[in-house]
Amino acid sequence: MIPYIPHTPEDRQVMLSALGLTNVEELFHSIPQKHRKPEIRLPSPLSEAEVVRELKRIASRNTSAEETAFFLGAGAYRHFVPAALEAIVSRGEFLSSYTPYQPEASQGTLQAMFEYQSLLADLLGMDTVNASHYDGAAALAEGVLLAYRAKGGERKTAVLSSALHPEYISTVRTYTEPHGLRIRGPGEGAWKAEELAALVDDSVFCVAVPFPTFLGDLVVYRTLCTATHEKGALFVVSVDPISLALFEPPGAYGADIVTGEGQSLGSRLSFGGPGLGIFATRGDLLRKMPGRLSGITCDRKDRNGFVLTLNTREQHIRREKATSNICSNQGHVALRAAVYLSLLGKTGLRTVAELTYRKARYASERLGSIPGYRVMNSGPFFREFVVRCPIPAEEVVHRLATQKIIPGLPLSRYYPDRTQDLLVCVTELNTREEIDRLADALSCVGAEV
Amino acid sequence: MRTDKKSIRTVEPFIWELSVPGRVGASLPEADVPEYPLPGEIPLRTELPLPEVSELDVVRHFTRLSRLNFSIDTHMYPLGSCTMKYNPKVNDAVSSLPGFSEAHPLLSEELCQGSLELLYRLQTALAELSGFQAVSLQPAAGAQGELAGVLMIRAYHLDRGDRKRTRILIPDSAHGTNPASVSMAGFTAEQIPSDKRGNVDLAVLRERCDDTVAGLMITNPNTLGLFEEQIEEVTAIVHQAGGLVYGDGANFNALLGYLKPAHVGIDVMHFNLHKTFSTPHGGGGPGAGPVGAGPALAPYLPGPIVRTVEPDVRYTLFYPEKSIGRLKSFYGNFGVLVRAFTYILQMGGEGLRAVAEHAVLNANYLKHLIEKRYRIPYNRPCMHEFVATGDVAPGVHTMDIAKRLLDYGFHPPTVYFPLIVKEALMIEPTETESRQTLEAFAEALLKIAEEAVSSPELLHEAPHGTPVGRLDEVRAAREPILNRTQTGIT
């Protein structure tokens, strides 16, 4: 007996005889007989206890960040998640509801969406934020496509900073390739503002940059943004939202489109998904932007309520002329972000960002002073920095794993020639003791060389 | 009117309306490292306009909001094509095991063999259920799976130097995501009509198929809830013209253990794990839209995917030979994949077949209970869902029926879709609803049909029992209010 199918034999009997049938299989007769009811080679059903035991066994084959001194980031970050957040978002009324197409039965979801849109708009300094995209990579890809459409489709080149997350660059390539668009920047290794400015000509519809960069660097984009506009192109910034508690948001210096990964706002690492695609625009791009929006209206008694609005942009209305094919989004992850920003609030988010900044600085000084190690970032950084090791970084990771330390990401994963470089990530959850332990362990590895 | 700024008042105040300077809602550690000044060369933020509220303020606010929702946990939610079945709690519990929730996607492979094992076994289970050669778990949702599939079809033709195939055919009953995905992949979408039995019109299909057709996208069972009776002819016609067939797996729930789509000529298909495999919809997402492919398209699947190095022991990530590349970072919506895998393990092969049987039995039983009062335009045995019409009395529309259902404590079915049926009510009860619930739902629908004749104003003005009445969508779009600043409330 399966607990998720409530039918008793008597129920089945009553239902079948009402339909004038003797066997449920008769309902499947429109399926060609020779293909009907094939053999399915899957294991027999398991009880809940058996399933949990098996899944615990599988989970135990992973190294969980909790059981180590953990310094790995590179696009997925471990920040503090309050218990109150988990309690709120696990409510069935949020988790087991559908897209709010029937607004009178979905005011909770719609208001939470509206609050997410507002909290993010404030954080990014932008006019309109949609109710989420799949993740930071897909949001950037759709941001680039929005810029292409907004410029009328004549210009065919996007300039991308080579310092964007390598997987974001790959994703943009997948999305833009069928439209015959060219990507300039990663091939040239251009990421500094003046290097990127030099690539902008009148074939370029947008310049897309990260803040901070994949390697943690903080770059000032104001001049580049102005130069991009002067050439008639749009400026797109892919942000880490936590960093914006300290630094000027892209809306303040004129960004047209802001995208980003919102996993750091109250979501777990969860092996890289679900993430949260942040997607924001200036007001005049509103009717061209993809994704759902919750807006305010009123009922016949003049009471205010929320509805999904500007639906004529979307696939279920506009079909092949829609601004995107997106339907399911990351709504529940956006809810997590809204609850996170509410709980952390004005002072909490700033504290998280400050602690992250300071601990990363402390770690870089400790690591940079170990003989044989060198910090490679030339300017200020947030949360992440690159350390050049005396031996291959993969080897460092391998050796430290036995001491329950995950020291960072060997950059050879994405840049094959950077074999000795390690990308180290520090957040407010890393203690000074852990950082010192990392430094000591690296020091031991270095001393053996 | 109330959409004038400054006069907006909502049932539950906005979180920022609860804000009091100095209040905090989270406890954070003291700094245990020296203070470093922020970098002078990077412009700093001057103002951070976030709320200042206590933990209890936040808990009460969002708990109150949650209570304004209908959900599966609180109400029957028979949305056609959305498969709002019960989401087992054990799936959520398992996905929050620290081994999964605290696993980083860029751990070296020897430190994340658990994740890789799970992904591999899920790929294998989906391939077994569908008959495909290989499966990629990358796509984050059904629509992204569609985009992946259409890009694979594109890459296949280009690889063969076949550059004139620019059209993709789509039946007129299809979901809007199909034509939208086709446009995103750089093709032209072209509509194929349905015939009188609700199947693809074969004569028109034959006529339209030539050497400029890249492929066909087909949903089976289709959005009328009907199995495409000539599915093998359909796929053969497209294949003969040199095209490939995309299967939209939104309705795969009906076929579990009864048909492997690869056996009837489908070349590539996405699965909606948030429909067929019971993962929660979360008020809009996250979903997961893995794609499976047969021999022609398997080399083009998006990556990375997982293979075994040493069977049942060691696993590794790789890109298929001619992969279309990445659609997002990392490896799909892993937390969703864990839930779906848990569900498959618990159900087993025979349990999944029972899912299809009871989903189809429930839909037919419900159709039987209401067909004396609601017209069923394509009335033959249905699969997991069926389409009725809401024109039960003069001047009464489907929207009126839908809103009145809310007063009876039922979430309405999908309305005005598929587009080929006027006044459509698309009803999918799913296998997790009991006979008693179905009967109560049917009774409500029949009662409403009576009200439609005796007191139609009850329907026109419905809903009466919800926190707000019928909302004016036109007004919302005319002058959009989409964030705090635009409300004028700070």
Can you characterise this structure?
The complex is a heterodimer of chains A (449) and B (490). By secondary structure, chain A is of the alpha/beta class. Chain A has two domains: 66-80 and 346-447, Aspartate Aminotransferase, domain 1 (Alpha-Beta Complex), CATH 3.90.1150; 84-340, Aspartate Aminotransferase, domain 2, CATH 3.40.640. Chain A is built from 13 helices and 15 strands. Chain A has helices spanning 9-18, 48-59, 83-89, 92-95, 107-124, 136-150, 166-176, 193-197, 222-230, 315-318, 331-368, 393-401, 432-447; strands at residues 69-70, 128-129, 157-160, 182-184, 204-211, 234-239, 257-261, 277-281, 294-298, 304-308, 374-375, 384-388, 405-406, 409-410, 421-425. Chain A has a seven-stranded mixed sheet with strand order 2-8-7-6-5-3-4. A four-stranded antiparallel sheet of chain A has the order 11-12-15-14, with helices on one face. In chain A, helix 6 (136-150) packs across helix 7 and helix 11 crosses helix 13 (432-447). Chain A is globular and about 85 Å long. Chain A starts with 8 loop residues before the first helix and ends with a helix. The model of chain A has no long low-confidence stretch (mean pLDDT 97). With 490 residues, chain B is α/β, with parallel strands linked by helices. Chain B has two domains: 91-347, Type I PLP-dependent aspartate aminotransferase-like (Major domain) (Aspartate Aminotransferase, domain 2, 3-Layer(aba) Sandwich), CATH 3.40.640.10; 351-475, Aspartate Aminotransferase, domain 1 (Alpha-Beta Complex). Helix content of chain B is 34%, strand content 11%. Chain B has 14 helices and twelve strands. Chain B has helices at 55-66, 89-95, 98-101, 113-130, 142-159, 177-184, 202-208, 231-240, 334-370, 398-407, 435-454, 456-460, 473-478, 484-487; strands at residues 134-136, 167-171, 188-192, 213-219, 244-249, 268-271, 291-293, 305-310, 314-318, 386-389, 414-415, 424-427. Chain B has a seven-stranded mixed sheet with strand order 1-7-6-5-4-2-3, with helices on both faces. A three-stranded antiparallel sheet of chain B has the order 10-12-11, covered by helices on one side. In chain B, helix 8 links the parallel strand 4 and strand 5. In chain B, helix 4 (113-130) runs parallel beside helix 9 (334-370). The longest helix of chain B is centred in the last third of the chain and has 37 residues, at 334-370. The two termini of chain B are 20 Å apart. At the A-B interface, helix 1, helix 2, helix 3, helix 4 and helix 5 of A face helix 1, helix 2, helix 3, helix 4 and helix 5 of B.
